[in-house]
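tmp note - ELMO3 protein
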Amino acid sequence: WSLPNAERYALQYADGRQTYITESNRGEIKNGSILRLTTSPDQEAERLYSGIQSNNSDVKTDSLKKLASLSQDITFAQEFINRNGLKQIFYIVEEGNDTGEMLAHTLKAFMELMEHDFVSWETLSAAFIKKIVSYVNINAVDASVQQLSLSILENMVPTSRLLFELVKKEVTLDRLLTHLQVTNAQLQLKAMALLIALLLAATDAERRDMMDYLREKNIRQFIHKNIIHSSEPLGDEMAHYLYVLQSVSLNLCERRMRTSMDPYSQEQRELLQSLRQTAFESESEAPASNFSTERRRSLCAKEFRKLGFTNNSNPAEDLRRAPPGLLALDNMVYFSRHTPNAYSRFVLENSSREDKHECPFARSSIQLTLILCEILHVGEPCSETAQAFYPMFFGQDHFFEELFCICIQLVNKTWKEMRATQEDFDKVLQVVREQITRTLSLKPTSLELFKTRVNALNYSEILKLRQTERLHQEETLAVPVLELRERLKPELLELIRQQRLLHLCEGTLFRKISSRRRQDKLWYCRLSPNQKVLHYGDVEEGVHSPPIESLPEKIPVADMKMLLVGKECPHTKEKSSGKQNKDVLELAFSIVYDMEEYCLNFIAPTRYEFCLWTDGLNVLLGKEMTSERTQTDLDVLLSMELKLRLLDLENISIPDTPPPIPKPPSNLNFCYDFSHVEQ
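out:
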């Protein structure tokens, strides 16, 4: 455009972040982007650098506002920092007494400039940091200034140990808790962000102390009531901070989880003995003192075996595996002390069962603790993006232990439902893991609700869910597949009808039952090849498939009126009791023919023959096939046919609704005309 002094101008996006166009990013310009001509970044930086030093407060405020906006751009930020602009910002903060709009713009500009990592956080002066800290610690400061100050401190904490210690000393946990209790959601969020940054930057010992202090101050109850159950929906950022707080809390269990039991530790041995005493003291406490050492040792071993320890002579060996280490012992002791009735019931109920059917309390507790550690990711570093916290975690003190108490009782319940033996131990724990993970995925808001739901999800429910999921995986429950299934049914039912009629044409050997129930005479019945006549007659023993001409009696299909089965048959109405009569009832059927005057009575040799003959006769009468065999055969044929039809669609997900058919084109003049010979 032949502008004079072209270097003073630059192009800039008109929308969005209004970034400057430079040689490095010009390739990213998309078609349709609107650009505007503006003064170059160095000219703008120079102008604003002068503007923020102005004595006119309006000019100064406007310059700082523009600076806060433009500082997001890396090209401008570099130009401004090169002019020593940060020094001027430090001066405004350190020397100024303003706590309103001007200060907010200054801090915003500082934040944006620091985002580009041109300058290290460690270069900040002590006076500047103290000023920022003072904005957090004083109530009479604008909320936007407090938010920005908290953000600055949050960014400072992870950069160096020195800055962490300084912020931790100057901004007390009490002060952060005060900010958490305000109604301003943004201020609450920034206070939580700084708290999380401090927790993540602390050493293990410092973190433990901080968490203990927060527990004393009832932060859990406060979060549960005022943040999780507040009227405002929970944002993604706050959800992430709550996930981190939950993760940090649960990771306090890591040390015990990774520590094996020391058999020489008096304290640990006493904890182990307390488990035995709580369960069995009432029945063995008095006489035990009179026993010899040997007898007492064998009694203890027997009781530890009843408790479900694998190594009953030295139960400490069971707790040598880490993880779950001492955490499993802590959980068992917590269960025995806080729910002694449930604990005693568990142990005594199982010690009175047969050996192979008893559910081992200690072995189950050790494995369950490991499962809970895996599900709750104890000992794993926090994810930087995850938001999956459990609302019930903040609704309960001693969450891990209380969850264990519910789940160990669930183990016993599931064990009984599965009628498990010692060989099924892993299978039971696998089902329990599934019960816990499925219930946790529903995000219950309290442990009580978790307990109700996890107990409702019994073993038979788990089996049903697995079956449904398998069908979904095979896509047999997808809507288009169900429609295809319905379409295939008539064709396959016809196939079953033909098979039944062919079976009648082959015929079957039946036994005659006289009034004395003597099964001595045989007779044969078969359908003619043209399916118009039923031929039957007596046969000798050893004849398996007599020719149709040798069967003298016949009934035309046209004369058949109805089919009777079971109790309705005339030959079963004679009074008789006993098992044999019941068997006969299940296999009896009769054909009523010739103006309903006569009956031909059958007793099928097997249930299979009964199903085939009753189905075949129903087909001849023009009725539905009603036997259970029909449904089984139909299911098998449908399943096979569907699998064959869906072979080409393997690993392709079938949508529930068909894709929309596009509208017909406005004209059909797009066909190529082959009638013209190309020249």
